[in-house]
Batch of 2 targets.
Target 1
Amino acid sequence: MYGHPISKELQKINQGYPLTQNASVLAGHKIKTEIPANKLLDTVTLLKKHGASLLTLVGVDEREIKGGFGVYLVFSLSAAIMEIKVSLDPDHPSYPSVTPVIPAAHWLEREIKDWLGIVPQGHPDLRRLAVHPDWPSDVFPLRKDFPAHGEVPRVEGEMEFFPVKGEGIYQVPVGPIHAGIIEPGHFRFFTFGEDVINLQAQLFYTHRGIEKTAEGKHFHQAALIAERICGACSASHTIAYAQAIEALAGVVIPKRAQYIRTILLEMERLYNHVGDIGNICAGIGFNFAISRGAILREHLMRLNMRLTGHRYLRGTVIPGGVKINLKASSELSSIRSELSQIEEKLCQLTEIMLASHSLLDRMQTTGILPKETANDLGAVGTAARASAVNRDLRRDLPYAAYREVKFAVPIQQEGDVFCRLKQRIDEGKQSFAILQQAFEQLPPGEIRVKIPDLTPYQTAIGYTESARGANVHWIMSGPNNTLYRYMVRSASHCNWPVLPLCVPGNIIPDFPLINKSFELCYACLDR
Amino acid sequence: MLNLIKEIMKSKIVTEDPTTWKESLGRGLPVLDLNNCPAGCSRCEQICPTGALADKVVDPKVCIYCHSCRQICPVDAIGETDIPLMKGSLTLEKLGQTLREKIKQVCQRSLHIRYVDAGACNACDFEINALTNPIYDLQQYGVDFVASPRHADLLVVTGVVTRNLEIALQKTYAACPKPTLVIAIGSCACGGGIFKDAYAAGGGVDKHLPVDLYVPGCPPTPIQIIKAILTAINRKK
């Protein structure tokens, strides 16, 4: 009955707790189980042994429907997605923290403590993460009894940083408002001379309350919210969200829509990667590459506009398919030939960049992310692949039309700034190839199907591999086709905890360079 | 190195003139054609995610330009027009006067901008960033971004003004020499956008600072932002 090899062992640990297994419209099997909290650590240890990686961890206030809180952990296994639920006490919700076994969960668990008051017992660091010091300690915005539009008074409080002490250690506070045109966040450098000894960050400045805003909204309206989580990851977020709704409804979208989604995702990856290839050079003042990269990025943005009517690809995706039926073939062939020209120009640019000794000198051995750290902390995307972590959801758990196009997943070995630059160059080449194939093979037909009424209080996930890595959207449906809980774990959420670990040992002037080589979104993390 | 020099020598001027701009400006402001609008139908008003559409008119500051209304209209009675720049709360005439006075005080020939992300999704930020690329080349007008609010004549603000950035925004404004022009860029900054009622979001810039000019759009394109900045300093041709 249970097809996946792990099912039997799981049953052994959790005797008496049934396991359900369905075919999922997204990825092979979907295994779901509810286990008692005291078996959680054994279960995740087993999953870790089988090479499972944590996709997301969500807390839900289910007091009004199930009489308590729920924590859902979602893992990806080979050809399967596994969701484990633990039910918690309504008055004193707590459970054994999984962070000691799976360090990748550490920010997620701090978040559910901040937002829901669920305590992960045994977590090594329960300082506040997602709420700022001026937030009252007994107010939990994602609980159902917290009003979505409530005003919350400010209280006195100080940012908590782990102390770094010693003779000659200085603190350098930076932000939240930065000198350049970038998003807000506060960094605290602990330095000895120019050398950074330790770096800590206070983020979540752009926290808008996206997840709470989506609660109670019709699933079509919530798609507009998913689009606006992040500008530069707009398509990948909306598609991940739409896939979650489709998985929940058990709907398979038409072939043409799958191809169009693939085109949108790769266009998004390209404009991000091309922009970043240029922009990383802003960290070393290599102006030629900065302006060439910016010109190519602008060309790609204009192609987006011609393809979809929006530079950031908004208003193109809807649960059940896509909203835009790409233009006539003459327009498409001109777009394809422009893409080839951009590819050629990018190639010329990167050849010059890679031949520049001053560039190599600044980028090589700077900001190294070791493979073990990337693996343990669950780094994703270009940052992980630049550190030899061979993981890409497009290949590992294919969605949209990724089963039907040929592409390679390049990886690098050293994990320094240069590898992250090279990774983007290599991935960009693959994206051009995927786009040409997708345009070539674009099938005719319908572009959307109707989503039937959603069964209330069911859960599902959707995911995409964005330019920055895995975006995982978890939803629980509510009554009347609304969302009961919506949780977004973006690629930046996975990679932000990793970045500060790559900085010690480097000098302060290298921080902008290291930061740009990760190119993490603040908006994606803060929500 | 030689190749680098060769490539630079080959470069041509790529900078474009915003006054002869031909490319699409993207999704415009929805406009209802009242002659075709069926009586008793209010589907567009019901689907509007921000309540921007009321009494058959769209408020440009509240609209998030998702065009859900246009898609749901059963008779195709909703067209679009260029997104207007909106002046601050003063009456137009009075504003023209105050703006001119401010500009006389503030700018001679050049203008320095300090940019603040007050809780944006980063689309507006990337578009503002694009202004400095060789294609738009904002510096050609004597306008540039500065690192410190102390050097700024104009504050460009994006985002809903989140609870966590409200104080930082006010401190930045306080650090600017007065008078300071303020431009709100993007739907979130203009009217709070889709998050306007959220517990962590502050409903737009004018709830916190006096705004001189609104540039709606989600996000407004670089060309709209350039036009707005040139309008703000009275330099639009």
Target 2
Amino acid sequence: MNELLFVLAIPLAASILLAFTGHRPYAANINIAGSLATLLAAVLLTIRIVRDGPMNVLGENFFVDPLNVFLIALTALVGFTTSVFSRPYMRVEHDHGKLSVGRLRLYHSMFQMFMCTMLVALSTNNIGILWVAMEAATLTTVLLVALYRTPESLEAAWKYFILCGVGIAQALFGTILIYFAAEQVFGHDPGAMLWTRLFERRSELEPTVLSLAFVFMIVGYGTKTGLVPLHNWLPDAHAEGPTPVSAVLSGLLLNVALYAILRCKVLVDGALETQFAGQLMMGFGLLTVVVPAFYLSRQKDVKRLFGYSSIEHMGLITFAFGMGGGIATFAGLLHMTVHSLTKSAIFFAVGHAAQMAGTQVIEDIKGLIRRSPTIGWGLMLGSLAILGMPPFGVFTSEFLILTTAIKYHPWATPILLVALGVAFASMFAKVQGMAFGEPTVKPLEHNPALLPVFLHLGLVLMLGLWIPPYLNKWFLLAAQMVG
Amino acid sequence: MTLALNIPDAFSIQVINLCAAVMLLLGFAMLAQRRILSLINLFMMQGMALFASTLIVAYTTNQSHLYWSAALTLTLKVIALPWILHRLIRKLSVKWDVETIINIPTTMLFGIALVVVAFNVAQPISQLSGAITRATIGIALACTLLSFLMMITRSKAVPQVIAFLSMENGLFFAATSATYGMPMVVELGIALDVMVGMVIFGVFFFQIRQQFDSLDIRQMERIKEE
């Protein structure tokens, strides 16, 4: 039996099981157990890939290589820690009367289903199935964002649904165009949608069709990545959904959408032999770094604040992949990893902080460190990490991205630096106000699970100081693939 | 396993072109239609046109999986979705709702501009097309963009959803006419997503109405950019 099958089947089975038992008191434990089993399977899969190299699974339908195995492992890890965090968090929400047991059942079942769709999107070899899985991920998260059924959450979910629905329809058109180009090479063959086959003969694909397809792809999947000007849904969805959902949206879903763009870029680069795809990504990336930086200072809701910060970081990663070349791509992959870990850790801390204050309004949250040092310091350190302070890993990746930009695209460097500086100034002031000062927040009635926060921050710190050699090799292999 | 394809004769090409023209015309009709009930009927007719063209492509190129795709279109787009929509608007009692704010002449002019853009964008691809007919990619893209325009101009939830579904029609038309249909597993997956999406939309309609006392999206302006 192959480990990948377990990686995909466990969340699916857990989702079905939780659809029946999700309202019981022990449902959160099933959720954790399912996520832990997925993580173990993902670790075994990773070990096998490190040992044996890329492989096809189930004929050629699924495919694992250094690029996606690294994202599969990351997804499983953050999925597991989020399920650990969500147990006390959802219990408090339930005690506060915000969620009925029926909603908890929906939450648990959809959480696992969401993990399953993301893992399918990451491991499938068929660009059509990739689209189907991305759309399914949208549908499950729409249900999760609307979980509270308040007018605001419905509005956020509707906006998310419509915007991402439109976006992803563009991506489908792009997929059809790629298939159209592939047909000229392969003839009419269902195998013409398999990424590995397309990759082998990428130089034969028709360049005009592929460049047009890439435009549709980057607009389509870019909507889900949160690229400006298609980012409007993202802050709303982050602010109005339950916090564990904000954590997996920021930490995982945005990465998966970006992964879809990357897979497409590799094909387009092979066919065009120009910098077209990279330049388009750099343009979108730069815009996505600059615009949200100036929105940050105007935010009053803490989860919206970090939602905008996620957009900014996605822009930085897109820019890095757009520059291309070994170092920039390495930095992009590293930034993807550290951003996922840090941002989900921040959302864990923010979730409990908002529960302690009974509000998400930044001005009404004060004195976290005095009331609960772990939550307060978790938020403070997480914010310092995400703002790119050494010695955290975000500093390393941002440093690499900036130095590459200085070397190859010096015009972009001041723009990036200004945006990062503005983001630092506006976010640091707000977080400082929340962490210090006279407390307005009350202690929680259940012990929060803060192990995930410090586990994530510990990993980010480690990646800033020392990247383990096997991880390094792995990033390099993946960077080679993306080119 | 490359399949040998029959080259369709001139008559079938004419019929497929006719279907394409009908789809585009219906796209414009939907753009201009204010009443929800008529909108659903137009959507159903567009589904019929898609079904007819898929069937003809299936017959002339002799591909069994396209028959399945045609059957899927018939059950989903012509029967199931219009039926669900009819039921929904009856239950929500918005059957006779009329959208008042759209400016139809301006919208139509925008629509014409979009068609021109779509044909220009599709031109380089059409020239490569060894498939049945050349104009169809442009028309498919135009249909998609018209639905997109409809989505932007409408302020009520149900017409927005119909626009979303009609966008899917345009994409499917692109897939069958330009590439003789995508692999079956992908088409099934897309159909499943559309179906699940529709169910979620249905649930949402009731929730939105309950919370906002209306299905007008303009009521939803609670979240403000600070």
